[in-house]
Structure formats: C-alpha cells, structure tokens
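Changelog note: in this version the structure field was regenerated for every chain. One regenerated record is shown below for reference.
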Amino acid sequence: MLNFIATPIGNLDDISQRAIDAIRTCDYLYAEDTRVTQSLLHFYQIKKECRSFHEHNEKKLVNIIVKHLQDDMTISIVSDAGTPGISDPGYSLIRTCADKNIKYTLIPGPSSVINGLIMSGLPTDKFSFYGFFPRKKNKIKESIELLKREHKTSIFFESTKRISKTLEFLEEYLEPQRKISICMEMTKIHERVIRSNVVNILSHIQKEKISMKGEAVLVIEGISNNGSKITINQRVRDEFLEKLPAKDAAKLISLITNENKRDIYKSLIEN
C-alpha cells in the first residue's frame, strides 16, 4: 500500500492521528528533505528511518518504490510541508501507480494553497494555482498576460526575498489597483496576511522595510470585466499629453481607472 501523507505547513499540531499512525507503521518512509521530516518525527517521538525522495531522484526511485509495493510492502511519502504532489515531488509515482493499477491513497491534511486562499479574503468559488511565480522575464510576461484575462482568483508561491520584485512587475504590467493578498508564516505564531492592492502593498513593503522570511503565498484577484480594448477620449488624451510625457500620463490614468498602464500607454501613442 502506498500512502501520500499531508504534513503541517507550520504548526506541528496540524496533523491527523491517521497520518501519524501511517508514518509509524509503514515499512519505508520517503521524504522530500529528511532533515525537515526528522523534526516532525522527533516531535511525535517516532523512531523511523527516513529516505530522500525529491525532484532530483524521483524518476530514479519510482521503479524501486513500485517494486516494494509489488512485494506487498507499505510505503509512505511526505513532503516538507503540505500535500505531496502539489508543487512537490510525487506526480511521477502517482502516474506510474495509476498506469500499473497499484493501489495508493492520500491521507489529507494541510495545504498552503487552500490556507492562503481562505486567508486572502478574495473570492473562493473559482481559483487557479500556478506553483511558483516564474523568474525568467519572458515567463513572467506570459503569466501576467494570463492574469490580465483571468476571471478566477490566482494563487502563486513566491520567495519572500523576491516578493518586492514580483510586485514591481505586477505594478508595471498589471492593473496597480488589482487586489492581492500576501500570506506568510501561516499557522505559526507570527502568521501575517497583507491585504490591499498591488501599488499600496509594494509601497508599504518598501517604506516599512518589512522583515519577511521563507516562502509566501501570493493571491491575486481576478478581473471583473471582459478586458476589452482601452479607448481614451481624444480631448482627455490631449489634455494629459499637453502637461505630461506619455509614460507619466499612462501611470496617472492607470491609477485613476485601474486599467493596465502599458495598455494605456499604447493607446496614448497610437492615437
């Protein structure tokens, strides 16, 4: 039997008795980072050898684990925090077991994706999760183009070391008034959620020099309209451009209208 086991995302009390029993009684325990999992085992006084199972060795280990399962052994898979397979190793093994008709189950528990969605205060009826926010500029632009058209709430993971840079991209290419939430240290003593729009949160982080550690969950509001092409009244355009350069005019109009700054700039220079 193969168990995928959700583990705490912060508070070590957030794990079920069923999960603890499955860890305690399995033949082999595999973990994303054995050092992290050993802290959990120590907290619950479980003496169990822990083997590495991460993105760099997952493909190599799949056949080994499948052989153990075919020999009627019980295997448990845990990630560092949250549910295995969600931005964590596990999918290759899941796919192989499904193809080979090998029985497996998920012992449910914490998920930073769902936790962040609920804590964000943004709509929960429809949402999309995209994993970690991309780092390469072309991929960032692709993600932002998607967000411009996305009506659902969008969820990303992001390093707190990079959150300011990510917000700068969102301010530049997305509507600066788009509502977002940044969730940090969830379920821990110093749990914190910042809720506002892109421009306000970026200003707050930069001015207050907020100390942030680890990873954050970035939740972004979906659009409330059909994203139709921006048109600017000729007289309004002329008055703005008479007093301001096109780039500054676009930024000001964007703050007033909550429309994308780049789209406004294009409209200003095309007319």
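Spot check on this record: Residues 234-270 form one domain. The radius of gyration is 23 Å.
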